[in-house]
Write a structure and sequence with these properties.
The complex is a heterodimer. Chain A is mainly β. Chain A contains no helices and eleven strands. In chain A, strands 2, 4, 5, 6, 9, 10 and 11 form a seven-stranded mixed sheet that branches. A four-stranded antiparallel sheet of chain A has the order 1-3-8-7, with no helix packed on it. The N and C termini of chain A lie far apart (35 Å). Chain B contains no helices and eleven strands. Chain B is globular, with a radius of gyration of 13 Å. The chains are: A mainly beta, B mainly beta. The interface between A and B is medium-sized, with 21 and 25 residues.
Chain lengths: 114, 111
């Protein structure tokens, strides 16, 4: 069963705690992305990675960290330094060799920090 | 000026009519343009992509691109209640490494 999986679907944390969101894919896509979506808003790019062991900051990277040790996995850590972490987090992938540059999304993780 | 702008709506259209969604973008070198549909509480789903000026049709959906005027639109013919969703416009930047999204237009199809 191919696709992108994100876990958990819902996550609750206390303020001041770090939390790691999982994103796994078996599409053999090279590029992976993390976005954040707030109510009534579009998607904002947090981090992205074009290849293993390399990643770049997006538009709102402060308070977040990532790693890309395997092609299939791109976990996102929301640190206590992120001032307003409650949001819907979306992982996306893209084939590096796709001429169309389309990105495909996982089901998302809804994080609530109180 | 935002890189990608959409009318946030809500846009209300009667069932069976044509829904027209618009998007403008600021980067003249953008080459790829996408429309995603997002149902409430779900992740975005790619429904159309367009790369050259003109129209591209796929079933009830037609994407229109005008690079000179820097706008892209999505037409939904014979609108159905199941088309009720938020539609996100996305545009490539920086050599297509990144997508920039508009804030989305909420569309409601009234039976």
């Amino acid at each position: 069963d191919g696709g992108i999986t994100q876990s958990p679907k819902y996550l609750f944390r206390k303020e001041g705690q770090n939390v790691t969101l999982s994103c796994e894919q078996n599409l053999n896509h090279d590029a992976m992305y993390w976005y954040r979506q707030d109510p009534g808003q579009g998607l904002r790019l947090i981090y992205y990675s074009q290849i293993v062991n390399d990643f770049q900051k997006g538009d709102i990277a402060e308070g977040y960290s990532v790693s890309r040790e395997k092609k299939e996995s791109f976990p996102l850590t929301v640190t206590s330094a992120q001032k307003n972490p409650t949001a819907f987090y979306l992982c996306a992938t893209r084939s590096r060799f796709s001429i169309s540059y389309e990105q495909y999304f996982g089901p998302g993780t809804r994080l609530t920090v109180t | 000026q935002k890189e990608v702008e959409q009318n946030s709506g809500p846009l209300s259209v009667p069932e069976g009519a044509i829904a027209s969604l618009n998007c403008t973008y600021s980067d003249r070198v953008s080459q790829s343009f996408f429309w995603y549909r997002q149902y409430s509480g779900k992740s975005p789903e790619l429904i159309m992509s367009i790369y050259s000026n003109g129209d591209k049709e796929d079933g009830r959906f037609t994407a229109q691109l005008n690079k000179a005027s820097q706008y892209v639109s999505l037409l939904i013919r014979d609108s159905q209640p199941s088309d009720s969703a938020t539609y996100l416009c996305a545009v490539t930047i920086q050599g297509a490494q990144k997508l920039v999204f508009g804030q989305g237009t909420r569309l409601t199809i009234n039976p």
